[in-house]
Design brief:
Helices cover 0% and strands 48% of the residues. The protein is mostly beta strands. The strands form three sheets. Strands 1-2-3-4-8-13 form a six-stranded mixed sheet, with no helix packed on it. A four-stranded antiparallel sheet has the order 5-6-7-9, with no helix packed on it. The chain starts with a strand and ends with a strand. The mean pLDDT is 91.
């Protein structure tokens, strides 16, 4: 879930029923906790990236998405992508543009993300927890986001 600068809220389903158009998502006109807030249903095609575990706003208004996959080798894969909220519309299917992967040495089950700016630089914080499992870790990592594609360079809506 992510709150846009204009007050709208976007909610991505991590694991809703499969639909050929993608995973269900909602764009709410405002605060989702306020009864009667209008919502637009759309679909997110995360093909090849995994499931969305969190989202955060970038300084330019786009949404950074954190995707996670559980596998065997590697056990965890985290793929980062950017989605332009301008591509969202009722019933539309939107795609994001992959911008990177968490390196294998830091791979884990990331479930939280925050984007911060400092001195004109943009940083991404990711957090995972061990879920009380010996084979998982609790990590808090920071990456600087550099060389992001221009706003109109995404894959957009279908």
């Amino acid at each position: 879930m992510v709150r846009l600068e204009d007050g709208r809220t976007v909610i991505f389903s991590e694991d809703a029923h499969d639909d050929p158009r993608g995973r269900e998502a909602r764009l709410l006109a405002g605060d989702p906790a306020v009864p009667g807030t209008q919502a637009v249903r759309f679909f997110y095609d995360s093909r090849g990236k995994g499931l969305v575990s969190d989202a955060a706003m970038l300084p330019d208004g786009r949404i950074l998405l954190v995707h996670r996959r559980l596998g065997f080798d590697p056990l965890f894969t985290t793929i980062l992508a950017i989605l332009d909220p301008a591509d969202i519309g009722a019933g539309r299917t939107v795609r994001s543009r992959t911008i990177g992967r968490v390196p294998p040495a830091l791979a884990d089950n990331y479930e939280g993300a925050a984007v911060v700016t400092k001195d004109g630089r943009t940083f991404l914080w990711l957090v995972s927890d061990d879920n009380f499992n010996l084979w998982q870790r609790s990590l808090l990592v920071e990456f600087e986001l550099v060389g992001l594609p221009p706003r109109n360079a995404g894959r957009g809506a279908l």
